[in-house]
Design brief:
By secondary structure, the chain is mainly beta. It has three helices and 30 strands. Strands 11-10-9-13-18-15-16 form a seven-stranded mixed beta sheet, with no helix packed on it. Strands 12-20-19-14-17 form a five-stranded mixed beta sheet, with no helix packed on it. The chain has a five-stranded mixed beta sheet with strand order 22-21-24-28-26, with no helix packed on it. A hairpin with an 8-residue loop joins strand 1 and strand 2. The longest helix is centred in the first third of the chain and has 11 residues. It is globular.
Length: 542
C-alpha cells in the first residue's frame, strides 16, 4: 500500500513520466545537475514578469462547523484514542480539490490543489477545552497528470494529538476516500504553559510532501484559550486582548516558479531544494495590504518548500515577537528581523500607529539563498520586497494590548530523563539520511516509554546545507546550542517544534512523551529532503 526507500526511485520516475516537460523548469542551473538529454534551456528560464503590488492580500475565510449528522458515514469512535475522554463538541469537513487559481492578473489561472477549493485552505479556529473532528475528503482527480500525487494524508503541524490523527505519512487516502482527525484540544500533559497558538495543516504523503504542498495543500489552524481569547475588547482580567478580527492577519509565504504559460512548475530531479523566483503571500504574487494606523497581530508562516527568510520592515521598525513556532514566548521580544526556516512561524505585532497617512511599508526578505540547500548567511541590501503595507485606512481607535508577560516556560526536569539519543543528519549515496539510514516507515528507529522524558542530541554533519528539523507530537526545549545555553531574549528559548540546523550545528533537546501512544516521525522540513529519505519513525509504547 505504502512506499519505502526501496521503490522511491521507481515512483519518482513514474511521476516524471506522466508530468509535463515544463515540470523540469527551475530558477537557476546551479540548483540542478540535469540528467542526460534534458535541454539546458528548460532549466534556466525564469517566470514571466509580473507587476508587483497590484493585487490585494487575500485572507482565508474561517471554516464554519457543521452538525455531527452532516458527516456521512458517521464518525467511528473506536478509531480514535481517548475519544470518550474528549468527545467532540464541533465537527468540520474539508474537501481536497483541484481548481484554477489566479496567482496574479497578468498570469493565466493555474492548476492548483487546495482545501475547499482555495489555497491556502480555510482557517480553522479551535478552542482549548472544545474537542473537534475534522473530516478530510480526497476529491483530487485520480487521473492527474503532472507533479504531485493525488493521494494524501493531512498533518496538523505542531498539534499534540494521537497518532491516528497526526497525518502519519503512510496513513494516506486516495481519491474518493476520507479520514477523520480527532483533535482533543488539551495542552500536553494538561499543563496550561504548553498551550499552543498558531498552527498549520498540510499534506504529508510519503515521498510526495514537497510536491503536494507546493501544489497548494496548506491552511491555517489557530488555537485560542482563556488568555488568548480572539477578542481585543474582552473584559476578562485574564484576557491578553491582543489584536483580533480583521487585525489578526495570517500570512503564508511560498516562493513559486512559473512556466511561460503561467503554470506553477516543480523540478522532480532536484534533491537539494526547490527555489521559486516569485514571492507569494497567501498564494498571490507580491500583494498589498491596506492597514489602519494601529497595532496588528501578524502570523507569519514559512510554507516552504525550501527557502529560508530573513524578514525586515523597510522603514527600520522592529517587530514585537510574541511566539516562536506554536508557543508564546515568556514575554514579548523586540527584534529588527525574523529568521524563519521552512515550517517555522512567528506571531508578531506590527504597530502602524505612528505611520504617516499614505505611507507604504514593505516586508522585505534579505536572506541570500542561491541553492535549495540553505541560505548563504549573507544579507541582501535592500532585499526582495514580499508584501506592501499601505497605511491609508481611517483611524478607528485601538483597544488592543500587548501584555508585558505571557506564560512561564515549564522547567526541564532532568531527573525524569530515562534515555539519551543521538541523531545525525547527513547526505549519503544520493539520499538525505538520519543516522546513515534512509527513510523506511516500516522500521522503528526508537521505542519510547509513554510518560518518560529523554534528551535528544541533533547534529548536522553537512558542511553546506541547512536542515529545519521537525519533530512531531511533543515540543522540545533547547538545553544547549553548540555547547552553550541560549541567551535571554533569544526567541528560540521557547518550546518549539522546528529546529534550524545550519552546517555543523549540534543541539541538545529535552522532551517529554505524554498522553498518547503510537507512531510518529522526525524529518527535515526542507520537504525536498524529507521526500528524498531524510525522515525516521519513532514510536511511543505503553
Amino acid at each position: 500500500m505504502g512506499t519505502t526507500s526501496k521503490n522511491r526511485r521507481e515512483i519518482l520516475k513514474a511521476g516524471l513520466a506522466t508530468g509535463a516537460a515544463a515540470a523540469l523548469a527551475t530558477r537557476s542551473s546551479a540548483q540542478l545537475c540535469p540528467p542526460d538529454g534534458i535541454p539546458p534551456d528548460l532549466i534556466v528560464r525564469p517566470s514571466p514578469p509580473t507587476t508587483p503590488f497590484i493585487v490585494p492580500l487575500p485572507i482565508p475565510p474561517v471554516l464554519q462547523p457543521i452538525s455531527a449528522g452532516d458527516l456521512v458515514p458517521p464518525v467511528n469512535p473506536a478509531a480514535h484514542q481517548r475519544f470518550y475522554d474528549f468527545p467532540p463538541k464541533k465537527y468540520y469537513q474539508i474537501r481536497q480539490r483541484e481548481f484554477l487559481h489566479t496567482y496574479h492578473p497578468e498570469l493565466p489561472p493555474a492548476v492548483t490543489w487546495g482545501y475547499n477549493g482555495i489555497a491556502p485552505g480555510p482557517t480553522i479556529h479551535a478552542w482549548y477545552g472544545e474537542p473537534i473532528i475534522v473530516r478530510q475528503w480526497n476529491e483530487l482527480p485520480a487521473d492527474h497528470v503532472g507533479f504531485g500525487l493525488p493521494s494524501t494524508t493531512t498533518h496538523l503541524h505542531n498539534m499534540h494529538t494521537a497518532t491516528e490523527s497526526d497525518g502519519f505519512p503512510m496513513d494516506y487516502i486516495d481519491p474518493g476516500e476520507y479520514h477523520d482527525h480527532h483533535y482533543a484540544m488539551f495542552p500536553a500533559g494538561f499543563d496550561e504553559r504548553e498551550t499552543l497558538t498558531s498552527l498549520w495543516y498540510h499534506d504529508h504523503r510519503m515521498d510526495f510532501t514537497s510536491q503536494n504542498v507546493y501544489a497548494g495543500l496548506t491552511g491555517f489552524f489557530l488555537c485560542f484559550d482563556s488568555r488568548d481569547t480572539n477578542n481585543e475588547r474582552d473584559p476578562s482580567p485574564d484576557a491578553w486582548r491582543l489584536p483580533s478580527g480583521r487585525y489578526d492577519v495570517p500570512l503564508m509565504l511560498h516562493d513559486v516558479l512559473f512556466d511561460q504559460d503561467g503554470q506553477a512548475v516543480f523540478d522532480v530531479f532536484n534533491t537539494d531544494g526547490i527555489l521559486g523566483d516569485k514571492w507569494t503571500v497567501n498564494r498571490v504574487i507580491q500583494p498589498y495590504f491596506k492597514v489602519e494606523p494601529r497595532k496588528y497581530r501578524i502570523r507569519i508562516q514559512n510554507g516552504g518548500p525550501s527557502r529560508h527568510y530573513s524578514l525586515w520592515l523597510s522603514n527600520g521598525q522592529e517587530f514585537t515577537i510574541l511566539s516562536s513556532d506554536g508557543n508564546f514566548l515568556p514575554e514579548p521580544v523586540q527584534k529588527p528581523n525574523l529568521e524563519i526556516s521552512v515550517a517555522q512561524r512567528h506571531d508578531v505585532i506590527i504597530d502602524f500607529t505612528d505611520a504617516q497617512p499614505g505611507e507604504q511599508i514593505f516586508l522585505v526578505n534579505r536572506a541570500e539563498q542561491i541553492f535549495g540547500r540553505g541560505p548563504t548567511g549573507r544579507l541582501l541590501t535592500p532585499g526582495d520586497q514580499v508584501l506592501r503595507f499601505d497605511v491609508d485606512l481611517p483611524r478607528r481607535g485601538d483597544p488592543s494590548q500587548v501584555p508585558d508577560r505571557f506564560r512561564d516556560l515549564p522547567a526541564p526536569d532532568l531527573s525524569e530523563v530515562v534515555e539519551e539519543r543521538l541523531f545525525v543528519f547527513d547526505y549519503d549515496g544520493g539520499l538525505w539520511t538520519i543516522n546513515q539510514q534512509p527513510a523506511d516507515m516500516h522500521v522503528i528507529n526508537a521505542e519510547i516509554k509513554q510518560g518518560s522524558a529523554e534528551i535528544w542530541t541533533i547534529r548536522n554533519e553537512g558542511s553546506d546545507w541547512q536542515h529545519p528539523v521537525h519533530i512531531h507530537f511533543e515540543e522540545f526545549q533547547i538545553l544547549e546550542f553548540n555547547g552553550k545555553p541560549l541567551e535571554p531574549g533569544d526567541p528560540r528559548i521557547s518550546r518549539k517544534d522546528v529546529l534550524t540546523l545550519n552546517p555543523w550545528d549540534e543541539v541538545k533537546l529535552f522532551f517529554r512523551f505524554r498522553d498518547f501512544t503510537g507512531r510518529y516521525i522526525m524529518h527535515c522540513h526542507n520537504v525536498v529532503h524529507e521526500d528524498h529519505a531524510m525522515m525516521i519513525r519513532w514510536d511511543i509504547v505503553p
